[in-house]
Specification:
heterodimer, A: 351 residues, alpha+beta, Rossmann fold, 2 domains, six-stranded mixed sheet, 21 strands, 25% helix, B: 232 residues, mainly alpha, MetI-like fold, 10 helices, 76% helix, globular, disordered C terminus
Chain lengths: 351, 232
């Protein structure tokens, strides 16, 4: 039951061009704000119209510019959970859910069954303004699910929440979408949210998808600079090739050996927790660094390292558990950037 | 002394009819104009708002230019239906409508502009028709502003003098309205009677302002708000 999307849209200077196929399960569009991920959802739902392309859900063509097909959003049967939920403020919870029922008969019964399923009993006659954030979200989901959508789009579903509420709501949503058994597209800029909820991750640069793949693959090899940053890699530096396998990392002022680096490698990244103390006799990508700053986090330390003998602009961040740093703590440390932790990245892709 | 209440009745029916007509016209103009391209929007906006700033006598003059028995629309009606569009009681409806249209249009537009468009999008994705969304979501969300605009338009229509006197004239018992009666009575030195009508006018205006304030109060306490931020 796939959802196939291949669309283009130009808005002023901004050009959106995305193509992907979402199977049953969750596909996440991970991107910074303004990269076009919300616009992509709006085009799929029919709220916005792409300039060119094709959108097919199962065997139904929702949009096809070549054949002049553009179904109105009412006929697409695509559920859209908006950032602020978009509940109708003048209607009660029950009336809101009844709005989602497409059949002409038995609207109230269908709504009441959904109210039970989403644990909204006792709130039926309340207005959205009287509900907590979590109850609003459940009402919005109930209203969407009762309309029996063929796919579900979630636009930053937790961004309106306080962080302590977020985790619980995320569990509820995870539970709901597991039962849904149809394609779900999640839009988010939070790598943790995306990692916990999604099966497939598409990293979006400015207006296009740079990398798409299973979540483990994308986190292991984000392939582009944007991908590395969005998956939470804090150490990213441009590199210049100085030999067959040797590169100069400009931001840190250190030479790196990267066997097997693809020819278009333009950046290198290393996650803060992938740096480790150098072993006895180790020489490859080993650097003596001065500890410039020590930042205490609740459960870890972040240590900012300045490699010896450089005037490079940026330090490297190194994160480790508290006891580990307490054992190692010194003014100078020798660290290794291990081969398996070094991400070889392409530059900004133009698509 | 017996007072002939015809002018009050006449003013009320003229204001009532024009308010109902302009309620729909103003709302639909506001709704559709918010959807046209920017450049067209600016031009239409000026055209639709101009009666608000024109002197009512100019509005009356322009109306006579098109509705008069020898003018384009007026003569067509005369020939086709044998109907004279000026100097009858309902001629004043054209005058008051032209004058209150911008009031209704602008308040409705203001109300629609603060409406959260994601509610509209959400309704569409749920399969609700545009008509349903308009009447059951957009209008209830904007109702305070639209009600206030309607009351204001009705009050303005009741007090319209300039354009009305030009297009409907003053015929006692036929086209006389409260405002034209006050002028006529004062002009003919019937000061006591003029004063009675002035008091009636003041009373009506006071009631209208009271209703406006009540509406505003209700809006502030607000059972709900549909601000663009989308928070309830």
């Amino acid at each position: 039951m796939p959802l196939q999307v291949d669309i283009e849209k130009t808005l002023g200077d901004f050009h959106l061009k995305v193509a992907f196929r979402a199977e049953t399960g969750v596909l996440a569009l991970l991107g910074a704000s303004g990269c076009g991920k919300s616009m992509t959802l709006k085009c799929i739902a029919g709220v916005e119209k792409p300039d060119r392309g094709r959108i097919v859900l199962d065997d139904r063509v929702l949009f096809d510019s070549d054949r002049g097909i553009c179904l109105p959003p009412q006929k697409r049967q695509i559920g859209f959970l908006f950032q602020q939920y978009a509940l109708f403020p003048n209607m009660s919870v029950r009336q809101n859910i009844i709005c989602g029922v497409r059949e002409r008969k038995g609207k109230r019964e269908a709504a009441d069954a959904m109210i039970q399923r989403m644990h909204l009993e006792g709130l039926e006659d309340k207005k959205p303004g009287q509900l907590s954030g979590g109850q609003q979200q459940r009402t919005a989901l109930a209203r969407i699910l009762v309309s029996q959508p063929g796919a579900l789009l979630l636009d930053e579903p937790f961004s309106a929440m306080d962080s302590h509420l977020r985790f619980q709501l995320e569990r509820e949503v995870r539970h709901t979408i597991r039962l849904f058994q149809k394609p779900v597209i999640l839009v988010s800029h939070s790598r943790d949210e995306v990692y916990r909820l999604a099966n497939v991750i598409a990293v979006m640069g400015s207006g296009c998808i740079e990398t798409i793949g299973g979540k483990h693959e994308v986190f292991a090899d984000p392939a582009t600079r944007t991908g590395a940053v969005l998956t939470g890699c804090k150490n990213v530096s441009p590199v210049r090739r100085t030999g067959g396998q040797t590169f100069m990392a400009a931001d840190w002022g250190i030479p790196l050996t990267l066997p097997g680096a693809p020819p278009d490698t333009a950046y290198v990244g290393i996650r803060m927790h992938d740096i480790r103390p150098a072993r006895e006799g180790e020489t490859l990508n080993v650097f003596r660094c001065r500890v410039e700053e020590e930042i205490e986090n609740p459960f870890s330390f972040t240590v900012m390292l300045r490699p010896e003998n450089t005037a490079a602009p940026l330090p490297l961040g190194w994160e480790m558990e508290k006891p580990a740093w307490e054992r190692l703590r010194a003014e100078w440390v020798t660290v290794c950037l291990p081969q398996e932790g070094l991400l070889k990245l392409k530059g900004e892709s133009t698509c | 002394m017996g007072v002939d209440f015809f002018p009050l009745w006449n003013s009320l029916r003229i204001a009532g009819i024009s308010t109902i007509a302009i309620f729909f016209l103003g709302i639909f103009a506001a709704y559709y104009i918010s959807r046209v391209p920017r450049a067209v929007k600016g031009l239409l906006d000026v055209m639709l708002t101009i009666p608000l700033v024109l002197p009512p006598t100019v509005v009356g003059y322009l109306l006579l230019r098109v509705l008069g028995p020898k003018r384009v629309i007026g003569s067509w009606f005369m020939e086709t239906f044998g109907l004279r569009l000026t100097m009858t009681w309902w001629s004043a409806v054209f005058a008051t409508s032209a004058v209150i249209f911008p009031l209704m249009y602008r308040t409705a537009r203001g109300a629609f502009e603060s409406f959260d468009e994601t509610l509209d999008a959400a309704g569409k994705t749920l399969g609700l028709s545009n008509t349903y969304i308009f009447w059951r979501v957009r209008m209830p969300c904007c109702r305070q502003g639209i009600l206030a605009g309607t009351v204001l338009s009705f009050a303005r229509a009741l007090g319209e003098y300039g354009a009305t006197s030009m297009i409907a004239g003053y015929t006692p018992g036929r086209t006389a309205t409260v405002s034209t009666t006050v002028y006529q009575l004062w002009r003919t030195n019937q000061d006591d009677q003029a004063f009675q009508w002035v008091m009636i006018n003041l009373a009506i205006s006071a009631v209208v302002l009271l209703v406006m304030n009540l509406l505003e109060e209700k809006q502030r306490k607000g059972g709900w708000a549909c601000a663009a931020a989308g928070r309830y």
